[in-house]
Write a structure and sequence with these properties.
The chain is an alpha+beta fold. The protein has twelve helices and 38 strands.
Length: 729
């Protein structure tokens, strides 16, 4: 690992593990992109930047007719001074002009990685884990300085990027566009991959060839959203799970974003990502600065599995934080689908008693415990206990559950307010709204204005009071609607389009404060399930409720797609009742268990209504998961069969020393007279022999990977099989 600057050729060479990222200063201080890919020892110019005179590509330097920014591969391009492609940034001056011209001013290289003020980002635990390059670009005419930050890690093929704007001029500057990164690739022979979806079917996998023009994904919802995820990848031709080059781009941000790819007239490819410029501006007074979120860029020459494993390792160990980062996650029971709003203390304790008898470790009390919350039409914001339901309060309930041998957890939705609430009646201006316009509701609620300090201070205090009132070990932090009428009563007219980003800064401050005050609490983020499953949330809360859809068949695709970027330790996965409450499908308890065991297991059904046979099955599932959960949550994950490509799905987990593995196979629908099938395993040690636990059969790792493991014939729909392998002595 290292960052080297060669002053003769003016080349920056960033080396990380087995990856190189190279830039070059050209012309009168323009920062050009040169190469990103497999690590090389040094760049001597085997593929020099070439400049040709192109019709209708103007020249910033009249003496250099072949030089145009319209054809230069750039690191952080502007618009208006000969580059007609999409810019990485754009400003507006007080005279109305929107032209800017950044040139190299200086740079510095240092060990470690800086924090980004007010924003989540990957981090280092020791300075020698990473090196950082800061390149300062300057527009001398207006006094604008932009610092580009690049960090490379020693262990991973990763470069992180962000930009910091500073107004060192005498006049105000308005940012119209401030993306976090830009990369210009020399050709367009790629496929584009992204993760679209909707509530209940998040993070599908879509892949298609690039075409000339602009293709993009974005969110304008005030959250990263169910509909799109802040991640895209470019794949080389014929790339699959295990072979080929992949370039991944993941934004560490939880609000409105844009990820864009532009293929130009000369078949070069521009990738840019950051805060969505739509409905965004930011006013920089003289002396003020603005920091963009971080993009984590991963290179893999070992296909999609290689990219995913890098993201998994980095996000699990250098993005997630706190006491639970490396700790096995508890098996929980959540009462939501068992009771919804209709419960009392007696009913909760009866459910908890059954859960304890089955070996479950954590009881989570979901929505309905506060205010006058008997339905979703009231009481959000009134964070005090409903004594009619819980006469002994949270403290009394938690104490009883603790005495059963289980921890106690709680659901909250602190970013929202019900119109029918004491909080709204006292502070009707504390929600996002625009003067003289109706306040659109979603799920009968409005969004609190986290761009306001007093609102954030209030939430920090009331939620802290709740968490201090009882022995609470877990919090599910929900957010059940997206933003409309995005405006703040506290901001002047010229800053109204800052509201959505200021909201995110306020939310990050609230989460930082509360999670720091309660380090013993395991926080799980949620937004109607997976509507805010993004790296920004993982910085504060090490796991996320993957989807409100708990159907085992649906979860095959949801969890498979999620695994493209996010570690298994981040995925909440529950066994629920059948017919399933979301799709009304009936699947076996075995399959529901096997799918949930592919994440952080929980149960979300009325255990007291199960038969004795079903209870025994749950008890066995719980005991089995306790044996394998470290392997599942922290092992190396491999995808084998995609549920997006056929009737089957399969994946596996391998321990770090490759002495143990777990393989999960699923078939959705039965078919008549089918061929025999087998699956080839991955990640094993070819020199080791492995015992198939339960059968005593022993196979070589090379045999299992190259010849494969036969899938037994099973009748009926919705079949699942789990194999456990241990290295034979």
């Amino acid at each position: 690992m290292g960052i080297i600057y060669g002053p003769i050729m003016r080349i920056f060479h960033l080396q990380a593990n087995d990856m190189s990222y190279i830039m070059q200063l050209v012309g009168r201080g323009y920062l050009a992109h040169f190469y990103w890919g497999k690590r090389i020892r040094k760049a001597n110019g085997s593929r020099k930047l070439r400049f040709l005179s192109r019709p209708f590509s103007p020249n910033p330097d009249p003496s250099a007719r072949a030089f145009s920014l319209d054809t230069l591969p750039q690191e952080y391009p502007a618009y208006g001074n000969t580059d007609f492609r999409a810019p990485a940034y754009q400003v507006q001056l007080e005279n109305g002009a929107t032209i800017s011209d950044l040139r190299y001013k200086t740079h510095r290289i240092y060990k470690g990685k800086p924090k980004l003020k007010g924003l989540p980002a990957t981090y280092v635990e020791r300075e020698n884990e990473a090196e950082t390059l800061e390149i300062v670009l300057e527009d001398r005419v207006i006094g604008l300085h932009v610092t580009l930050l690049y960090t490379v890690y020693e262990r991973w093929n990763v470069v992180t990027r962000s930009a910091r704007f500073e107004n060192r001029g005498a006049e105000r500057i308005k940012l119209l566009r401030a993306l976090s990164m830009n990369v210009d690739f020399p050709h367009a022979d790629y496929e584009w991959l992204h993760l679209p979806g909707a509530w209940g079917r998040e993070r599908a996998v879509e892949r298609r060839p690039l075409v000339t023009g602009i293709q993009s994904v974005e969110s304008r919802r005030g959250a990263s959203s169910h509909q799109q995820n802040p991640f895209i990848a470019l794949l080389g031709k014929n790339t699959n799970e295990d072979v080929g080059e992949v370039y991944g781009f993941s934004l560490v941000y939880s609000g409105n974003f844009l990820a864009q790819v532009e293929v130009d007239q000369f078949q070069t490819t521009r990738v840019s990502m950051g805060i969505n410029p739509f409905d965004f501006t930011w006013l920089l007074e003289p002396g003020e600065s603005f920091q963009t979120p971080e993009v984590v860029m991963v290179y893999s020459d070992k296909g999609l599995n290689g990219m995913s494993q890098t993201y998994h390792q980095l996000y699990r160990t250098r993005l997630a934080r706190g006491a639970f980062r490396d700790r096995e996650r508890p098996i929980l029971i959540n009462n939501w689908e068992a009771t919804y709003f209709h419960f009392n203390e007696e009913k909760i304790l009866r459910l908890a008693k059954t859960a304890a008898e089955l070996g479950i470790e954590l009881f989570v009390l979901d929505d309905g415990w506060f205010g006058k919350r008997d339905n979703d039409r009231s009481s959000l914001g009134d964070w005090f206990v409903n004594k009619q339901k819980l006469p002994n309060g949270l403290g009394g309930l938690a104490k009883n559950i603790n005495q059963m041998g289980m921890k106690f957890g709680l659901w909250v939705e602190p970013e929202m307010v019900s119109v029918d609430s004491e909080l709204y009646r006292q502070h009707p201006d504390w929600c996002l709204h625009v003067p003289n316009r109706p306040r659109s509701e979603g799920r009968n609620q409005l969004v609190l204005d986290y761009s306001r300090k007093e609102v954030c201070d209030y939430i920090i205090q009331v939620i802290s009071d709740v968490l201090a009132s009882a022995p609470i070990s877990y919090v599910k932090w929900d957010m059940n609607r997206h933003m409309t009428e995005i405006g703040s009563a506290a901001l002047p007219p010229e800053r109204q389009r800052e509201t959505a980003h200021r909201y995110m800064l306020g939310l990050y401050r609230v989460m930082e404060e509360i999670t720091s005050r309660f380090p013993h609490v395991l926080f799980e983020s949620c937004s109607g399930g997976g509507g805010r499953f993004d790296p920004g949330m993982l910085y504060y809360m090490p796991q996320t409720w993957t989807s409100d859809n708990t159907d085992a068949v649906s979860r095959l695709k949801i969890q498979y797609g999620t695994s493209l970027v996010y570690p298994i330790s981040a995925m909440g996965a529950h066994v629920s009742a059948v017919p399933n409450h979301q799709v009304h499908r009936v699947t076996s308890l075995a399959m529901r268990g096997h799918v949930a065991m592919s994440g952080n297991v929980g149960y979300e059904l009325d255990l007291t209504k199960l038969s004795e046979t079903e209870k025994q099955t749950v008890k066995e599932q719980v005991a089995f998961y306790k044996e394998i959960r470290r392997l599942v949550q922290f092992g190396t994950f491999y995808r084998i069969l995609s549920p997006f490509e056929g009737n089957e799905a399969a994946w596996m987990f391998v321990s770090e020393d490759r002495s143990e593995a777990l393989v999960a196979y699923f078939r959705v629908l039965a078919e008549a007279n089918v061929p025999l099938s087998f699956i080839r395993l991955k990640g094993l040690d070819p020199k080791k022999d492995y015992k198939l636990v339960g059968s005593g059969e022993i196979y070589g790792g090379d045999e299992l990977m190259h010849i494969g493991l036969i899938v037994p014939q099973r009748r009926g729909d919705f079949v699942s099989i789990i194999w456990r392998l241990k290295a034979a002595r």
